[in-house]
Design brief:
The chain is mostly helical. It is built from three helices and two strands. It has one domain: Winged helix-like DNA-binding domain superfamily/Winged helix DNA-binding domain (Arc Repressor Mutant, subunit A), CATH 1.10.10.10.
Length: 74
């Protein structure tokens, strides 16, 4: 059985953070851009953001977007 789409998206973003492609304070693309990039629905992106937020990797700012957490959790 394959991994749920939202977990795949969360894993990909997590890998970009750990590899240094995405750095603390970087702004993530919009939900619409992420939907297009991963070819998934808004619901999938929303679920993956909840996972990353629970892990402390991202920080959502109302009306401003989603940013990589600064500092990152250890």
């Amino acid at each position: 059985m394959s991994e749920a789409a939202y977990l795949q998206v969360a894993r990909d973003i997590r890998e970009q953070i750990s590899s240094g492609q995405l750095k603390p304070g970087d702004k993530l693309p919009s939900f619409a851009a992420l939907c297009e990039h991963y070819e998934v629905s808004n619901t999938v992106i929303r679920a993956s953001m909840l996972v990353l937020k629970a892990e402390g990797l991202i920080d959502g700012r109302q009306g401003k977007g989603v940013y990589i957490a600064n500092p990152l959790p250890r």
